[in-house]
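User: I want to check something. If I give you two sequences, will you return the structure for each one separately, not as a complex?

Assistant: Yes, each is folded on its own. Here is the first sequence with its structure:
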Amino acid sequence: MTKGGKLIIFSAPSGSGKTTIVRHLLEQPELNLAFSVSATSRPKRGREKQGQHYYFMSISEFKKHIKDGDFLEWEEVYRDSFYGTLKSEVERLWAEGKNVIFDIDVAGGLRIKRKYPKETLAVFVKPPSVDELKIRLKKRSTESEDKINMRIAKASVELATAPQFDTVIKNYDLDIALGEAHKLVADFVGATIPNPSKKE
């Protein structure tokens, strides 16, 4: 892969708020960010769109991409539920002159960090507690009790990986977490955060 801009990874257990943080950062023009759309073998949910939320593919299609070495990282998150980052996706965004931001699984985030240690900022988003995670996942009403319990069990394992990341943001208060994330990323990409109190 040809090297281009920076890579910014946000990883966390499901329900920690990483997606909200990533969306906020994408709205900050000075950061020059573009979102890396992951590939997955899971079916679409609700209003999800191909190429916008994920690149949806069959299990056999996903496995062929693995065999062909097309992924920067991939993971079988649950049985027959694969997720991964296509090399072509990152190269496309780098070609556009962008810094690439990821909202991905903990294992995948650490793999990218190992491959590109200097170009990557790996951020772990920590929820207030596992109990709070369970409340947030139940509020979503998108998954069965069994699936929620699987996510909670996985979250306990994922929380133990936090020290392997460059930095940890505690998402106890969303506004504070958003501000911390904005400053971290701005420092990493060498951007200046506009001062809202200054008049043009």
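And separately, the second sequence with its own structure:
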Amino acid sequence: MIDSQSAEKISRMKKLRRTLSESFGRIALKKEDSSFDEICVTKMSTRNCQGMDSVIKPLDTIPEDKKVRVQRTQSSFDPFEKPTNQVKRVHSENNACINFKTSSAGKESPKVRRHSSPSSPTSPKFGKADSYEKLEKLGEGSYATVYKGKSKVNGKLVALKVIRLQEEEGTPFTAIREASLLKGLKHANIVLLHDIIHTKETLTLVFEYVHTDLCQYMDKHPGGLNPENVKLFLFQLLRGLSYIHQRYILHRDLKPQNLLISDTGELKLADFGLARAKSVPSHTYSNEVVTLWYRPPDVLLGSTEYSTCLDMWGVGCIFVEMIQGVAAFPGMKDIQDQLERIFLVLGTPNEDTWPGVHSLPHFKPERFTQYSPKNLRQAWNKLSYVNHAEDLASELLQCFPKNRLSAQAALSHEYFSDLPPRLWELTDMSSIFTVQNVRLQPETGESMRVFGKNNSYGKGVSNSKH
């Protein structure tokens, strides 16, 4: 009789334990954000990109209910533009702007997405469409419009990226990707996503307002920037990239139009519409990423297996452009022309200089002129005017992807040796301009000021090749 009672008691306890376990499991899952930017916590190599893929944890470490398949990016380089849409573009020799088709946006019916606690129930709340006042239009694309706005909650200026939703197509995948990644990124050199507003007709991403971008800044100051400013801009770019790369996120669309510049000189990475978390369940990626002028040769040759090295090539191109005053590799025709411009400076690759290049889909040796590598100062003479600039550029602009310097290693390069040591001790959300004597210098003939009212937030200015 005792054994029977004991067995029944044990059975009830087991049943209760299962019930509690399932209940806590449901609560935990509800609290978690099931976005596709799951990241693993293995330590990343910080010297260069070699071995980067090998330290990524296998995809089976992601719980099955967390795996979200994402549509692969096609030939869409304007993050406002759907992959199948064509946008008319006008080219000028110096980073021409996109001419966007105009279309009207629907009226917004508020639906609370986030919550705040104002003192009055009738006060404006975060997460509501009527919490922001639109001041002026900054740009428009095929499915989104960017406005300069003002928060009715705290009076601060914001940028409102209003994405039009079409019932038959749903939310554009670039918008989902951008919101999913940005909400988890908190860094002084990454544009801050303040709020998300979801209505029946629109999805609005509310960003901090930043006055201009690096493309407009360079257009305002042609012929190359003040070398000290180049150093501060590059340091901030590497700082932001190091932060996202340590979280196994690739930006995949680095270009001057996607680097916002505040009136104090703070640089912020923007437009994460093409960004990808390295741990999303896809073993290969689209090779139709990165604006042509800033696209690395491995991707141009059809490689779909890449890592953070992809972004580091873009850093090298932007570095050269800031110093020299012209784009490093301004291809005017097609991918073949772009590759020829790269090989003219860095040399035509072979199996000795680039192991595995012959296996890339678009590499046909007979199609390319055989060039020998040159010193970078032969192509861009202003690199020789700045201590260690040529060496840093050469370590970033490596055709063989695994030879490119990582963002973390680049921050320790001798090029930055004359900056205050305190810069390397800052917390993620601390601006470099909080360090004494760190400030932007006047460009040639002008003092620092607000350089323009427009910025990209995913719209930007663009060259003719995408």
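Because they were folded independently, the notes below concern the second chain alone. Residues 212 and 451 are 6 Å apart (CA to CA). The mean pLDDT is 74.
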